[in-house]
Amino acid sequence: MAKGEGKDRMSLARHELLSDISAHTSQVLREHGIDSDVAEQAGDAVANQLAENWGGQQFTFPRDYFFRIAKRDLKIYEEFRGNNYAELARKHHMTARGLYKLIARVQKRLVAERQGDLFGGEIG
User: What's the number of domains the chain is made of?
Assistant: First the structure.
């Protein structure tokens, strides 16, 4: 790799990321009935805010949908009453076994967040 080539590649990647954030934000706003000019300005503002507040940090975005799944799991858990497994399984298009596992996983994570890990390992 030639001197400076890695920096150029990173610069392009940053620009692409911020452009994608701006474009996607603008698109979502337009889909919600916001005027195109306002949506574009808001998209740019979001990208600029992220660059300002998070500039200089390094992140690796996971390829899985953990955030989306975790949000869904927490929503389902909040609907859980202790005796409504079948109802929730049907409502969320899951098997009963899958719902049992989801409830157990969320309970384990909530307990771990409240108590911390006594042995310093990661929560699985």
Answer: 2
Dist. CA 11–CA 70, nearest whole Å: 32
Q: Look-up: residue for tokens 């409504």?
A: 84
pLDDT recorded at residue 82: 93
Helix (H) or strand (E) holding 107: helix 96-115
pLDDT per residue over 45-78, tens digit each?
Answer: 999 999 999 988 888 876 655 666 788 899 999 9
Q: Tell me which residue has tokens 């009963």.
A: 96
**60, part of any domain:** no
DSSP label at 93?
A: T
Residues 105 and 73 sit within 8 Å (Cβ to Cβ): yes
